[in-house]
C-alpha cells in the first residue's frame, strides 16, 4: 500500500500512540477531580497545552482544546458573532474548507452578511478586494493559512495588517499548516487559529483553537467550567496527550521533515510531468505546502484515475477528501478559474512522514500507463 493522502488524514505516529496509552487505563481519572489521580490527568493535559503553546508561540491561556478543526472553525466564527451585536459582516475566502464556508452560510440566518474574497489562478486571495471590503461593520475575517486541496499558502501577515486597520478579528484555519511549517502567532497578526492533530501524525478527534487574549467569544457548548468556561465537557485526555506529543515531535523534526518531503513531492512532479503530456500543476509553484501536488489531467476524470490507482494499492484523492463522496467539481479549483473539465480531471497526491522514494517511483511507474489507458477511452482525446 502506498498512502499519498496525508492532507485528508495522517497515520498516528507510534510515539504518539505510546504516549497516549497510559491515559486510557492507568491514568484515566477525570482532570477536574481533586484527588491525586485527577491531578495526574490535569498535569498531562496542561503539559500538552504547554507543548502546543510552544509550537504556536502563544500563551498557555490562549489555547482551548476542541474535538478538531471543524469545531475550532465553528467556535471562532459563531463564538465571536454571538458575543456581540454591533457588527454584521463576515468576510471569508472562496477556497475555504467547508468547515468555514458552511458555518459562514449558517450565520446568514442570524442577519450576518457574508462576503467571499476571490483568489487568483494560483489560489492566492485578492488583497485589494479584501482592503475594499473590510469596514467598520465587519466583525471577523476568516482566511485559511494553506489550502487543503492545492496547498497554496496565503499571505497571513499582509491580511492581518489590512484587517487590523479596522479593528476586525482575524481568524485563520491553519489545519493544514500547524506541525508542517513554523507559525508565530505573536508576529503574524492572527487573533484566532484553528488546528487539528490528525493532520500532523496526531490522533483523530482532537484539535484546538488559539484565541489571542482579549478577543471575546461565546462557547458553543454550555455545561461545566472546562477550558475556562469556553468549552464544556470532560476533556479527551488521551487525545490531548497525543496532540501534545505530536507538537513536541513537530518542534524537533518539522524543518528536516519538510525538506525531505519536498524532495519526494518534487520527484513525483518531475517524474509524471516528463511522462504525461497535457498535465497541469494546480496551486502556487513556490508558495505551496511542501507535501502537496495537485494536478489536472486533460481528457480524464479524477475519480477514474483514483479507482485505477486504488486497484494498484496507491491511495490519493480527487478534490478535498471531505467532498470526494460527491461528484461536484472542486469549489477551490473552480474559484481558481479552472474550467469544469480540468477541475473534474484533478488529482491530489499529498505526501508525509512515512513515504519513501520507492513509493514515489512506483507511482511514476504506474500512473502514466493509467492515464494513457483512460485517455484512449475518452471521446475527446486525439493522440
Ligand atoms: N480545515 C481544513 C483546511 C481541513 O483540511 C480540514 C480537514 O480536512 C478541516 C478544517 C477539518 O478538520 P477536522 O477533520 O479536524 O474536523
Automatic annotation (TrEMBL):
<feature type="domain" description="Aminotransferase class V">
    <location>
        <begin position="2"/>
        <end position="363"/>
    </location>
</feature>
<comment type="subunit">
    <text>Homodimer.</text>
</comment>
<dbReference type="GO" id="GO:0031071">
    <property type="term" value="F:cysteine desulfurase activity"/>
</dbReference>
<keyword id="KW-0411">Iron-sulfur</keyword>
<keyword id="KW-0408">Iron</keyword>
<dbReference type="InterPro" id="IPR015421">
    <property type="entry name" value="PyrdxlP-dep_Trfase_major"/>
</dbReference>
<dbReference type="GO" id="GO:0046872">
    <property type="term" value="F:metal ion binding"/>
</dbReference>
<keyword id="KW-0479">Metal-binding</keyword>
<dbReference type="InterPro" id="IPR016454">
    <property type="entry name" value="Cysteine_dSase"/>
</dbReference>
<comment type="similarity">
    <text>Belongs to the class-V pyridoxal-phosphate-dependent aminotransferase family. NifS/IscS subfamily.</text>
</comment>
<dbReference type="InterPro" id="IPR015422">
    <property type="entry name" value="PyrdxlP-dep_Trfase_small"/>
</dbReference>
<protein>
    <recommendedName>
        <fullName>Cysteine desulfurase</fullName>
        <ecNumber>2.8.1.7</ecNumber>
    </recommendedName>
</protein>
<dbReference type="GO" id="GO:0051536">
    <property type="term" value="F:iron-sulfur cluster binding"/>
</dbReference>
<dbReference type="InterPro" id="IPR000192">
    <property type="entry name" value="Aminotrans_V_dom"/>
</dbReference>
<dbReference type="Pfam" id="PF00266">
    <property type="entry name" value="Aminotran_5"/>
</dbReference>
<dbReference type="InterPro" id="IPR020578">
    <property type="entry name" value="Aminotrans_V_PyrdxlP_BS"/>
</dbReference>
<keyword id="KW-0663">Pyridoxal phosphate</keyword>
<keyword id="KW-0808">Transferase</keyword>
<dbReference type="GO" id="GO:0030170">
    <property type="term" value="F:pyridoxal phosphate binding"/>
</dbReference>
<dbReference type="InterPro" id="IPR017772">
    <property type="entry name" value="Cys_deSase_NifS_bac/arc"/>
</dbReference>
<dbReference type="InterPro" id="IPR015424">
    <property type="entry name" value="PyrdxlP-dep_Trfase"/>
</dbReference>
<dbReference type="GO" id="GO:0006520">
    <property type="term" value="P:amino acid metabolic process"/>
</dbReference>
<comment type="function">
    <text>Catalyzes the removal of elemental sulfur atoms from cysteine to produce alanine.</text>
</comment>
